[in-house]
User: Fold these one by one.
Assistant:
Number 1:
Amino acid sequence: MNFSAIDPALLLASLMVAATPILLAAIGELVVERAGVLNLGVEGMMITGAIFGFAVTVESGSPTVGFLAAAVGGALLSVLFALLTQLALANQVASGLALTLFGLGLSSLMGQGYVGVKPPRTQVLDIPVLSDIPFLGTVLFSHDLLVYFALALVAATWAVLKFSRVGLVLRAVGENHDAAHALGYKVVRIRVLAIMFGGACAGLGGAYISLIRVPQWTEGMTAGAGWIALALVVFASWKPWRVLFGAWLFGGVTVLQLNLQAAGLAIPAEYLSMSPYLITILVLVIMSADRSRAPASLGRIFHASG
Amino acid sequence: MGVHAMLKLEKRPQPSKAFAYLTPLFAVFATMIAGGLLFAALGKNPIEAIRTIFYDPLFGEFAFYYRPQLLVKAAPLILIAIGLSLGFRAGIWNIGAEGQYIMGAIFGAGAGLAFFPTDAWYIFPLMIVAGAFGGWVWAMIPALLKVKFGTNEILVSLMLVYVAEQLLASMSLGLLKNPEGHGFPGSRNLKDYPAAFNDELITGSGMHWGVLTAFLAVIFAYVLLNRHMLGFSIRLTGEAPRAARFAGVKPNRLIVFCLGMSGLLAGLAGMFEVSGPSGQISIDFNTGYGFTAIIVAFLGRLHPVGILLAGLLMALTYIGGEIAQGNLGLPAAAIQLFQGMLLFFLLAVDLLTNYRIRLVKREVAQ
C-alpha cells in the first residue's frame, strides 16, 4: 500500500474533471425540476450526447463541433420526452424511464462503428504564468474549457433563477402551474424550453465523459452518472451552488476510490467501486428529511382545463 | 364572423375501457411501423425483418425449437413485472428490480453451491427460499429508507442496482468462484449439479420451475388485486389517493408490501434463471430483465393477465431479435431500441384512454 503515490494536486484536478459531467447534467435537471417536471431520462440523454459528441468529433475532427452536436442531440432526445409529458400527458416517471431505455438503445446502435476509435484531443488551458503555479496551477488553471463553462453555468443559473423575471416565472410554474396558467403564463411552452435546456446540458455532460474523461466510446459508458446527477439535485435541495458542492463530493469519492485502488488498498476493487453509489444513498437519506423544499408541482401532470 | 376549428383534449370522466384494451395493440402496431422504418434505415428489408421477429419464432420453419424458448425468456419478465405492477399501481416506483434479480441469483446459487456435492431433495427448495429472501432483503433497503426517512425509492433502488452488479463481480471472482474452473471467473455451472438444477418439468417444452412460478404469480396477483383488501388498497391508492387516505389505507404498509413483494419475485426470477437457463454466477449474468420488465408491466397495463401476454410478446421480440441478428445481420442494439420505442408509443397512445379528442368550433367575433 503506497499512499505517497497519490499526488494531492492531481487528485483535486481530477476531482474537478470527474465532477464536471454530473455537474452539467445536474444543473440542467435542476432547471427542469424547478419548472415542475421530473425528467428521469437524464441517463438516456447523457449517453446520447456521449455518442453524438463522439461521432461528430471523430467525423469532423473538431471537439468544439462535437460538443455542440452533443448538446443538440441531448436537446432533440428531450423533445421526445417533452412531447410525451406535455402534449400526450403521460406519466412523468414512466416517460423518463422510457427515455432512458430508448437513449441507451439508440446510443448502442449509433456507437457500433466507434468502439476503440480514438477521438481528437480536446485542448487544455495553458495560461503562461498561472498554469505553472506549483499546486494551484494544476488544480485551477490547467483544465479544458468545459470545466470553466460548467462553473459559469452554475453561476448563471443561480443568477437567472434568483434575480431575473425569466427565473421567477420558471419558479412560479414549478410551484403552482395552475396559478401560473391563470396568470397567463404559457406553462407548456416554459416547461418544454426547460426540458430542452436540461437535455442540452445532459448531452454536454455525456460528451464530456466520452471525449475528455475517458476518452473513448463504450456501450453504457455513463454507468449511472445520470442517476447520480438526479440524486444530486435532491441532495442540493434544488439550489445551484449546492449542486456544485455535491458534484465535487461525488467527483471526489469517485476519484479517491480509483486512487485507493491504484495505491493498493487492501479492500477489493469491487467494493471500492461501490462507494460512489453507496455515498449517494447515504446523502439522499440525510437530505430527504428536507422534502419541504421540492417545487410543489414537481411531477404533477398539467392540463389546462380552462 | 370567422369560425375557427381546433382539436381540444377533454378529460374523460372515467378511463375508457375499450381503449384500455386497444392501446397496447395500437402501440405494438405503431412500433412495428417505426421499427420497420428503423430497419430500412439500417439497410435491411423492413418487411422481412418484421416477419423474422414476429412470425418466424411462432410459425416459421424452426418454430418447434423457438416456441419453448419463448417460455424460458418470458418467465423472468412476467415474474418481475407482476411484482413491479403491484407497486406501480400504487405509485411506488421500484426501478431497482435488476439489482434484486441479481441478489436473488447470488443468494440462490450460493445456497445451492454451499451444499455441493450433496444430493438431497431439500436443496432446491432451500435455494428458492434463499433466492426469494435475497431479492426481498435488497428491496427492503429502499422500502425502509422510504418509510423511515421519506427517501426517494427510485434513486435508492437504482443505486443498489450498481452496487449489486459490483457484488456480482466480486462473487464471481471471489467467494463463489469455481475451484475447479481453471482460474476463470464464474461459479460452478449448476447444470452439473442435478440436485440444484432448475430442470424442465416437461422435456422439450421449455417449462422449468420458473415458468410454473410465473403462472402462479399471475394467478396470485389477480386474486390479490380483485379479492383481497390489500389489493383493493393498492388500487385505491393509485386511482384516488385522497379517498385512500380517508379510507384509512396505511401508506407505510403498502410501501413495505409492494417493494418487498416485487423484490421477492425479482429475486425468485434471478434464482430460477441462474439455476436453469443461465447456469452460473458470472460477471455478465444480468441482461437487463429488470428494466425490460418495466416495459412489460406497462405494456400489460399493470394487469396480471395483460402482463402475461405482454411478457410473451416481449419474449417474442427477444427471440425474433436473436434470429434477425443471425439471419439478417441486424445489430442487437436495434432490438433494444425497438423495445424502448414500444414503451414510448404505449405511453403516448395511452392519452386516448384518459382523454377524448374533440373538434371544437369557436366563433370569433370580428
Number 2:
Amino acid sequence: MSTSLNDLSPGMILSEDIHNFQGLLLLKKNTRLSDKNIHMLKSWGISSVRIVGKGTEKYNKNTKSENELKVSVLNEMKKKFSGLLEDPVMEEIMNTATELIVQKRMKNG
Amino acid sequence: MDNNKKIPDLDRIVRHVRDLPTLPRTVLKITSLVNDPQASAKDLSGVITDDQVLTARLLRLVNSSFYGFPKKIATVTNAIVLLGFDAIRNLLLTTSIFGLFKRKSEIDNAVLEKYWDHSLGCAIGAKIIGNYIGYEKIEELFVGGLLHDIGKIVEILFIPDQFEKICAATKEQNILMRIAEEDILGFNHADIGQSLAIRWNMPARLETIIANHHSPDETTQFLKETSIIHISDILCRSLDIGWSGDDVMPALNEQAWKELAIETDDVRMIMEEMQQEFGSLKGLFEY
C-alpha cells in the first residue's frame, strides 16, 4: 500500500527500493526514514512510497514492553546525565538518546 | 593549561613505552608528497598502488556509505582526483590506524573493542556534524574523532597495570576517567594523545583537537574543529556507542555549542544518522 510523502514520519521503514525518474537508486528497501531522507525524496519529486505496515497507524504506538524498556533506559540516562540537565540542550540529547536506544533495542529484539 | 611544562613528562613516559607505533612508511611517503607542490595525482597514486592491501582498503572505504557516492570509484587515481590529496592522506591514515595498535593476548580484547567502538562513533559523529555545518575537511575530522581517545588505547596496551588502577578509581568514585588519570598518572589521555600527534608530525589542527577535546574553550585556534569533536564525543556517549571508560557524562561546553550553532531541532537527525552510520561502517574496520 502506497503512502503519500506528506503522511510519512521518521522511523517508518521502506518496503521497496526507491528510484528517481532516471532509474538511479535513491534509497534501498528496509531503509529507516528520517527527516533528511524524506526531504530528499520530496526534492526528487517522489510523491508516494511503500512502507512496512499499514502506514495509517502511528509508528510509535507504545506497547507495554517498549514502555518498560523506555522507563529503565531513562533511569540509566538520568544517572549518567545527573547534574547536567539544567542545560536544555543536554536534556534534549538525553531524551533523544533514550528514544533512539529504545528503538534500536526493540528492533534488534 | 601550561602545555610546555607537561610535554617533557609525557615524552618520558612515551619514550619508555616500548613499541609505541610509528606511522606506516607509505603514509609517511604520502604525507611528504601531499606537502610537495610539484607532486601530481599520478605520483601519489603510484605510491599507494604499490601497496595492494592499502589500495584495497582505501577503495573499499571510498566506495562505502562513508560518502555514499552513487557511482563506484574504480581506481586510486579517480579517488585522488575526486577527493583531493589531503582527503586521501587522511583516509589512508584512517585505514591504517587500527592496525598500529595490535591486540595483545594479556589484555581483555573485548574491552579494547568497546573503546575503539567509541572512537569510531565519535569519528562518524564528527563527519556528520562537519557535513551539517558545511565544514570541508571532513576526512580530517574523522581522523580527529578516531584519535581523540587514543591515549586510552595507549594506556590499555602499554601501561595496563596503571590503567587497571585508573579504571578502579573511576568506577569507585564515579568520576570522569580523566580525573582518575590525572590523580594517578599526573596527566590524562588527551595529553598522551597530543604527545603521540606531535611524534607523528600531525598538523597542528589535529594536535589541538586531540589535546583540547574536553575543554574547547581553552584553545586559541581551531575552536570550530575542537568543538565538533567535543560535541560528537558527548552524542556518542549518550547513544551508548562503545564505551569511554566512565559512567558519567562530561558537561557540554557552552562555547563549543555556540560556535557551531546547531539547531536543537536538528540534534535528533544528527544522532539518528550517527546510530545508523555506525551500524554500516563498523564492518569496514578491523580492530
